[in-house]
Design goal:
Elements: E1 6-9, H1 17-29, E2 34-37, H2 45-54, E3 60-63, E4 66-67, H3 73-86, E5 91-96, H4 100-106, H5 114-127, E6 141-143, H6 148-156, E7 160-161, H7 168-178, E8 183-192, H8 196-207, H9 214-222, H10 227-232, H11 235-241, E9 242-245, H12 247-260, E10 264-269, H13 280-285
Parallel strand pairs: 1-2, 1-10, 2-3, 3-5, 4-5, 5-6, 7-8, 8-9, 8-10
Helix pairs in contact: 2-3, 3-5, 7-12
């Protein structure tokens, strides 16, 4: 797999299947390496990945992430191998433990200790039986990893990490923990707008849903933000976790992640005037082929 330095991360649940396919095709034509799709309470990520892979020819599709609580390890192995074999190795399996409110409140499962639960799940995946034609290369597996223990597990028991909603300082620490070899695929939210009021307002609108989730809060506290920064979504917090401004300013943030050790940066293009839908002008301006 040739995973380039820059990809796109976005919820495609706001788009029809046809529109999502057109979106993926446009991303591919712009030269982005991959499209990362999440799992929450919308589409099945593996079924949707199959659709997007069938509608593209070079684009890598990655789950960012699929929750390990939503299916047993054998089902995940079968899905990943099927997608990779059908697409000529254009699939990355991103796995995560999700969040306690989602797992217990929405899905009705008991939320276990994150690192122990993930380790056990990966061990069970290794033992799963799969008796169909295998993909020609093993499916890359990356973990949603923020804290040092999950990052260490990502570097030893998986192929790398997929940190979400972090900073270049976190990227540097993640690379130190995992070492030089594993993939480090970092998500970065971007807003192509140089007006501080407009950009920060859009950022706060996008950040609000994450601010009460303990996995993110704990990571931000480790990065040095105070409770007041997180609760109030302060300018300092917004400016550190979002890349906003003109094209040069956003590219500089992407370069910061790469210099800090990221293998790949997947940008999430937030449109101030149309929340929930990708800012295509930003993707066109930031395109690797541009």
């Amino acid at each position: 797999m040739e995973l380039g330095q820059v990809g796109v991360w976005f919820f495609t649940d706001t788009q029809s299947a046809e529109d999502a396919a057109t979106f993926a095709q446009r991303i591919e034509s712009l030269g982005y390496a991959a499209l990362w799709i999440p799992e929450a309470v919308g589409r099945h990520p593996f079924a949707h990945a199959a659709w997007l892979l069938a509608k593209t020819s070079r684009l890598v599709v990655a789950t960012g992430i699929a929750s390990i609580y939503n299916r047993d390890p054998g089902a995940t192995v079968a899905a990943a191998n099927t997608l990779a074999e059908q697409s000529n190795n254009r699939f990355i399996l991103g796995l995560g433990v999700s969040h306690q409110p989602m797992v217990e409140g929405v899905r009705g499962h008991a939320y276990g200790k994150p690192v122990t639960t993930m380790r056990t799940y990966l061990e069970s995946m290794d033992k799963a039986i799969y008796r169909a034609i295998m993909p020609s290369s093993p499916v890359p597996i990356v973990l949603a990893a923020l804290g040092p223990n999950m990052l260490a597990l990502a570097g030893t028991a998986a192929g790398g990490a997929h940190p979400y909603f972090t900073t270049p300082a976190h990227t540097r620490k993640a690379r130190e923990i995992m070492g030089a070899g594993p993939l480090l695929c970092v998500e970065q939210k971007v807003i192509l707008n140089s007006d501080p009021g407009v950009a920060r307002a859009a950022a706060r609108g996008a950040a609000g849903m994450y601010a009460q989730l303990p996995n993110y809060r704990n990571n931000w506290l480790r990065l040095g933000f105070g409770e007041e920064d997180i609760n109030g979504l302060s300018d300092a917090f917004i400016d550190a976790t979002f890349a906003w401004g003109d094209t040069a300013q956003i590219r500089a943030r992407i370069d910061e992640h790469l210099a800090a050790g990221a293998s790949h940066v997947c940008i999430q293009p937030i449109a101030p005037s149309n929340p929930g839908f990708p800012d295509m002008a930003a993707l066109e301006a930031l395109a690797p082929a541009g």
